[in-house]
Design goal:
Layout (H helix, E strand, L loop, with lengths): L2 E6 L2 E7 L4 E5 L6 E2 L10 E6 L2 E6 L6 E3 L2 E3 L1 E3 L5 E4 L2 E6 L1 H15 L11 H5 L12 E7 L6 E4 L3 E5 L5 E7 L2 E8 L5 E2 L2 E2 L6 E2 L5 E4 L2 E6 L1
Length: about 220
């Protein structure tokens, strides 16, 4: 089972089982994982579970969040990774996550180049289904928001949209294609001007127009 081992110095304080999709961490007593340290912000950081992986995200804390001793804004977690917040060290435990991350990295590094082959007239006449190949990269073109007029190429496994504390979503690349995920905010993102419950992920298609808070963009593959 996934869990965090909470340490202060070299002393293990407790173990925290990870059963929620989102885990708030901070000095606020109402946090899912409250940590009493003046160096820790009230809403310091959070864990987000996207598909089978947890991500650590800093919430613009005063003193920052360290992942394996490096300051981060958002990062995927692997088995035995450490998260440093104030005087506390949180050690992430999940051997399955390490295997999943390795598999994802392999998918990113593997590129198969083949000469396109047209389906034979016999196959078309017979009505045989053609295998659909999932896209490996995507492009988002912004119409509104801070990146208006710009385009971003999505090649890695996760692309975030929005700002912590407001409406936040992500475009996740999976073997089956690209999916829109609702991460934070009171309102769901919109696809083609329709709000969709994308908490578990909604697959995106060529030409979809996505709206996340002040951001409006079109996706293509």
């Amino acid at each position: 089972m996934e869990k965090l081992i909470i340490l202060k110095g070299n002393e293990v304080i407790k173990e925290f089982p990870l059963t929620l999709q989102k885990v708030s961490i901070g000095r606020d007593p109402e946090s899912d994982l409250p940590l009493n340290d003046p160096a820790i912000s009230r809403n310091h950081c959070q864990l987000l579970k996207i598909f089978n992986n947890y991500f650590i995200e800093d919430l613009k804390s005063t003193n920052g969040t360290l992942h394996n001793s490096r300051a981060i804004s958002k990062h995927i977690l692997k088995h035995d990774d450490t998260i440093q917040v104030g005087a506390y060290t949180l050690r992430y435990q999940n051997p399955e996550a390490q295997a999943a991350a390795i598999e994802e990295d392999d998918m990113d590094k593997t590129v198969i180049i083949k000469t396109p082959v047209k389906p034979s007239p016999t196959a078309v006449a017979a009505g045989k289904p053609l295998r659909k190949i999932a896209p490996k990269t995507a492009m988002v073109r912004f119409f509104k928001g801070p990146k208006q007029g710009k385009s971003d190429r999505i090649e890695r496994s996760l692309y975030t949209i929005g700002r912590p504390g407001g409406q936040v979503a992500a475009i996740a690349r999976r073997p089956q294609g690209f999916y829109l995920l609702h991460i934070g905010g009171d309102d769901y993102p919109k696809i083609n001007n329709k709000a969709v419950d994308s908490t578990a992920g909604v697959q995106l298609h060529e030409g979809d127009v996505v709206e996340v808070g002040e951001n409006l963009m079109e996706i293509s593959f």
